[in-house]
Automatic annotation (TrEMBL):
It comes from Camellia sinensis (Tea plant). CDD domains: Gnk2-like (cd23509). It is a single-pass type I membrane protein. This is Gnk2-homologous domain-containing protein. Keywords: Cell junction, Disulfide bond, Host-virus interaction, Membrane, Repeat, Signal, Transmembrane, Transmembrane helix. The chain crosses the membrane at residues 101-121. The keyword Kinase does not apply. InterPro entries: Cell2Cell_Antifungal, GNK2, GNK2_sf.
Amino acid sequence: MTSDALTRRDGLMDYLASGGQYYRVGGSGKVQGVAQCVQDLSPSECQDCLSEAIGRLKSDCGSAAWGDMFLGKCYARYSERGGYSNNGSNNGSNDEVEKTLAILIGLIAGVAVLVVFLSFLSKLAEDRGGK
């Protein structure tokens, strides 16, 4: 990635991080990006999650032509046109699959947290009932 493309990528990532919506899309020159949260997050939790994902994208992907970062409840991606591993012919359907995958991962994580919480409550009720 050229220094101009890196500057464009960083500007795009800053734009995506400052959005305020659950689904954000943008581009600058040949650099395109998307950021998304599951909608069970509050706007501030979404903002925090995306800020972390975008920060990790910048640090972990360095000057790579593309990068993806999935966290428990959010997702961020950038690519330099022509630098992503797709040939671009199925981009619309791939985006839909990626959105669905991000939402499913978030839902699975939410269910796991709920199960752990309910197990904790059950154990707490048993402990109080035994005394």
